[in-house]
Amino acid sequence: MRVYSLAMLPVLLSKRAGMAGFLGFAASYISSYFHFSTKNEQLRLQDETEPFIRHKTLLESDFQGKDLVIVGDVHGCYDELMKLFEEVKKKTFKSFVTVFVGDMINKGPKNLEVLNYIINTPHIHCIRGNHEQKVVLDYLKFMKNNVEPKPPMQWVKELSGTQANFLKNLPYTISIPSLNLVVVHAGLEPGKSLQLHNANDMANMRNLVSVKDEFHGKVLKPTSIPGVGTPWVELWPGPEHVYFGHDAVKKLQLNENSTGLDTGCVYGGKLTCVLLHLNDKSEKIVEKELISVEPVKVYVPVD
Ligand SMILES: [Mn+2]
């Protein structure tokens, strides 16, 4: 055992402090490196969720004498969706094209059933909601980095490559110029072309807030925070009629230039769609009919 004289104490202490300092520095360097790399990885994976086509257009030829049905947020409520289609069939003798407003999956009971139905049934078109975005991101994190999805996303591990690819390539909007309408999950900014819209805003926005911009003075920016600013629908001037979902709290929204179809089926509300009866050439809406079905049960309690 070595014995140090009292005179050595300051030297020993400073050595210890030096070592502690070095270890602290090394630890913070290593953790910042990993933090940096995971943040980069997150951004890289987010890039990988981008669809091949961001904005899809349907033409008259996509309808060929059919009617059009636009369905609100399904969230895996497969039984209710089947009931809804039964109700639609009672209201029109024609076959129909279906467009989903996004959030077809997640939170609810039968996500894979809904997904399989959508993929395997002809004349169905879907856009992506914030939940499709989350699912694709969690799928990539699990497949590439072995990150376990958190509840209620564990079902994401069961996705096949085809299903994941289908979700990844869902566009942010579907426009039908002949009927003067656009379908988007959350909302749109008035006066801005679709191509200039931010992807996350289209899938998440609720309101527009006035902020100062150093070049343009006051400008309106989208926000997803409820109760902040003005609902985007109040400022949407048309001319396109926008069909959207995402806002279960506000329930069915019937505005002059927009229709909100999320009636909160997964929270014990109804599942709603609009049936647009078209003329024979499918270039004019003859009649609009709202159709809803009651939920089988409350799948997610509203807190
Ligand atoms: Mn949503």
Topology, element by element:
Elements: H1 9-48, E1 55-57, E2 67-71, H2 78-91, E3 96-100, H3 111-120, E4 124-126, H4 130-145, H5 161-168, E5 173-176, E6 181-184, H6 199-204, E7 207-213, E8 217-223, E9 230-231, H7 232-235, E10 241-244, E11 253-254, E12 258-260, E13 271-278, E14 285-293
Helix pairs in contact: 4-5
The protein binds manganese (II) ion (MN).
Manganese (II) ion is lined by residues 103, 129-131, 185, 246.
Could you give a quick summary of the protein structure above?
This is Serine/threonine-protein phosphatase. This protein is an alpha/beta fold. The chain has 2 domains: 8-48; 54-293, Metallo-dependent phosphatases (Purple Acid Phosphatase, chain A, domain 2, 4-Layer Sandwich).
Characterise this structure:
InterPro entries: Ap4A_hydrolase (IPR050126), Calcineurin-like_PHP (IPR004843), Metallo-depent_PP-like (IPR029052), Ser/Thr-sp_prot-phosphatase (IPR006186). Its EC number is 3.1.3.16. Residues 127-132 form the Serine/threonine specific protein phosphatases domain. Belongs to the PPP phosphatase family. The protein is of the alpha/beta class. It folds into 2 domains: 8-48; 54-293, 4-Layer Sandwich (Purple Acid Phosphatase, chain A, domain 2), CATH 3.60.21.10. It has helices at residues 9-48, 78-91, 111-120, 130-145, 161-168, 199-204, 232-235, and strands spanning 55-57, 67-71, 96-100, 124-126, 173-176, 181-184, 207-213, 217-223, 230-231, 241-244, 253-254, 258-260, 271-278, 285-293. The strands form 3 sheets. The protein has a 6-stranded mixed sheet, with no helix packed on it. Helix 4 (130-145) packs across helix 5 (161-168). It is globular, with a radius of gyration of 25 Å. The protein starts with 8 loop residues before the first helix and ends in a 10-residue tail after the last strand. The relative contact order is 0.15. Manganese (II) ion (MN) is lined by residues 103, 129-131, 185, 246. The site of manganese (II) ion has 6 residues, from helix 4.
